[in-house]
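forwarding from the other thread:

> can someone predict this with manganese (II) ion?

sure thing
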Amino acid sequence: MEYNVADAPMVKILHLSDIHMGSGLSHGRINSNTGMNTRLEDFRDALSHCIDRALSEPVDLVLFGGDAFPDATPPPLVQEAFANQFRRLADAAIPAVLLVGNHDQHAQGQGGASLCIYRTLRVPGVIVGDRLCTHRIATRQQDVQVITLPWLTRSHLLTRPETEGVSLGEIHRLLLERLRVALEGEIRQLDPTLPTILLAHLMVDKARYGAERFLAVGKGFTVPLEFLTRPQFDYVALGHVHSHQVLSQHPPVVYPGSIERVDFSEESETKGYILGEVERGHTQFEFCPLPGRTFRTIECDLATVAEPQATLLQAIAASPIQDAVVRLIYRLRPDQVDAIDSTALHQALAIAHSYTIQPHLTSQLARPRIPELAADIGLNPLEALQTYLAERADLQDLLPDLLAAAEQLLVTEPDPPLTLAEATIHSFPEEEVYQTQLRLL
Ligand SMILES: [Mn+2]
């Protein structure tokens, strides 16, 4: 392709994705100064960092790869936190493309309910990508073409009669075939002289999975990387996968990843966004890390240690937990439970931003400590007690009394068993049963 480099200045872009504003609020607490959940403030700050950078560079175009909120109906406070940041771009006359991800769509019907409001309001410079089409966008430098490919469901590309009685595998094959044709249609009408970007929310077959796997309700279909590595594209800006990864260099096919951790599955991932310079036939880009809130897991197996409390406190002291979201997971034997002083644990964890403590008892059946008491050996209750007590040196003084008491209990005639009718009436009043069932739902 022939063109004069001097006539084709590069377009500076900022590409971010998977904001999920309003996620993981259980890891936060209420900020008494603002009344806001601190995790909502963290997500807002992460987005604010991105927008700060877009303004300070300044970039010519911002690309958002989809999944603005956890669902299509965010509460007004969360909508506002998102809108306040993108409004700063509009104020600075920097165009932004907001792509619709799977979390932005309603389960039924088409369109990105949570993002379409920006089109309805005609916010200057904001383009909502809720269908496959090409947008020619005027930037300070030059025009750029952006093909938007939102999260596709079968209703976008297939009609009901086409999918009736058809296997899921066959539907995915049909979807990919339709997508290939539709994408080809967009590619053929591109202006070959302009920088061209594909902005898509999808799962590429070669991508590593992350937290998005657990967040998505319905499993979508994966798209082969070959669909995206077309010479007509100068940059392929992706969204959906939460861990940053570069799938191809020519052209660059990039997931920036999410901007904040939604849960512990993202504990070890670096969060950030992409800053790039796109020109026809040549693109440079770099990943820019965001500070982000640290997540820290402390895991301890206490079942084999002599001093469980001291071991646990040492493990906490050895972890940098200041201002982090912390989970303390420890395993212990049932007979060690009394050795744990939970007040001291809470004190040790108080410098964390938030924390949870998850004790797990090692299963007696899985680890029979007294071979004579293994599950497959038949003993009557008194024999079982004698076998157990024989192992407990600390209880030898009480042995005669304990055995006598046990014998007494075992020979005492129990209360006559309740009839079924009585049991129903006495143990489970109707209302209580109803309440129990409600909790189960
Ligand atoms: Mn997604």
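The chain has two domains: 5-289, 295-414. thats all i got for now
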